[in-house]
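Sample A.
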Amino acid sequence: MKEKVFDENFYRKLESISIKARMTLTDGAAGGRKSKAKGSSVEFSDFREYTPGDDFRRIDWNAYGRFDKLFLRLFMEEREALLNIFCDCSKSMDFGEKSKAAMALRITGILTYLALNNLDRVCLNRLQEGTVVTSSSYMGKSSFQKALQFLESGSFMGNTNLAESIKRKELKSRGISVVISDFFTTGSIDEVIKYLAFKKQQIILIQVLCEDELDPRLGGQVRLVDSETEAEMNLTITPKLLKAYEAKLRGLQTGIKASAKKYGGVFFHISSSDSLEKIVFEDFAREGLL
């Protein structure tokens, strides 16, 4: 990728988004993600050692006096969640005047930052060539730069089978799994969803497409080259063929959404040309992710 993903513009937008996201939270919602476990905000559950960037208002000073270490108090409904983000790093993602790859990385970065700010743990996973490359588990805002370094160290090349790649990831506990992809993949997307559901994951599927895929402006004789397999096809682009393509794309999206909904998950699609603010405060908010 030639485009600088995490530039000064990204950091300015990230700061603005994080401030606005905090303002949208209800009073008293500071702290970890609420679980379905019974309990109230005064029902103590456990301690966790303080990490730089955590909310200092939740420090237990009595514990500090006894152990000379900083600890946070956790409550029954504030158990931290484990967020796994799976990012499709196949060659087809590195496409478009506004790169799908750049958008996928920025979305991953924003979700990571918001989760770390919410006291959740985050694990990043790059999917490529039927494999999964997994980061360490990040916790606390101080680990955000390490997460970005992991994302920047990857490349977008080759092809991928999402199901084959994701099933290589051993998910040992309940959590939230986000898959960011164009979903132009070999193998079954239903298999991905069923595997994540079997592993007791809250499923979030985000499809990133570029404008050339959402509204192709082609006509006449063209030669199409598959960026992953390098297979070539000569076609005559007609209005009828473009309508068939649009119907096929809508069918793919409708099928993924229905399958995700069947297992309690959500699916939505975005354009790589969309602003980050629109994605977070319209798309994410609409699906209850914020």
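Sample B, a different protein:
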Amino acid sequence: MSVTTTMQVPAPSAVLELLKPITWFPPMWAFACGVVSSGLPLGPRWPVVVAGIVLCGPLLVATSQVVNDWFDRHVDAINEPHRPIPSGRIPGRWGLYLAILWTGMSLALASQLGAWVLGAAAVGLVLAWLYSAPPVRLKQNGWWGNAACAITYEGFAWFTGAAVMIGGLPDWRIVTLAVLYSVGAHGIMTLNDFKSIEGDIRTGVRSLPVQLGVDAAARLACIVMAVPQVIVIALLVGWGKPIQAAIVAALLVAQGGLAVRFLRAPIAKATWFSGLGVTLYVAGMMTSAVALASLGVPA
């Protein structure tokens, strides 16, 4: 008598949902900011730029999403049971297998784009695993977890875009703006925590809304988003770019108007503010990148 066992394989649609393509945009946009800020024409570099976009979005960020969903499957069973892993559409240990596979593919592509890109990608992947995986699990504390996400989603992606174009370490002004926008992104990450407060409390995740309370965390998110932009505006003025500084200032004022409504009802308006306010935030990023390009920063 023979027994045939069939290993259950996830459907491609479930895998794509697990990779969360909607989350790829912010780092791909930041990568594009890095490319633009270099001030160099695409020319023969366009295949490398395309590879960099694939690295930042469909590989690195997708890896972080799979890793997070695998180690967060018990929390998601409470907050969002319809997700691919808790719903069973990604069966067994396939979530872990996919996380390992995407990590390997990310490193393989990054290794073809230069030492600085490989280094940034490797650090980003380490942070992605440390963010979700025990025993470190940075996401257990909103201060550390949000910082890890912010620096990888914005700073490393921007740095990678510039490094791909330049073929080495970018100019200090490029790195400075990448760092500042990463700091502001910490506030953006806090906005994402408002939708999972109940599950975080029940599972011991100390997100900032849990630690500080809803109102204090909402105020902090707005301040953390705004202060780096004020510094960017001052830098642009100092670098002789008043028009771009004025554009970033106008975008910041518009964010402030949205923030007033958000602060009146943080839980109800967090997703709304994240959608509209972050759009204005990333528009300021590209405006700043264009300003750097017009400065002719040394490669």
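Observation for Sample B: The chain has 13 helices and no strands.
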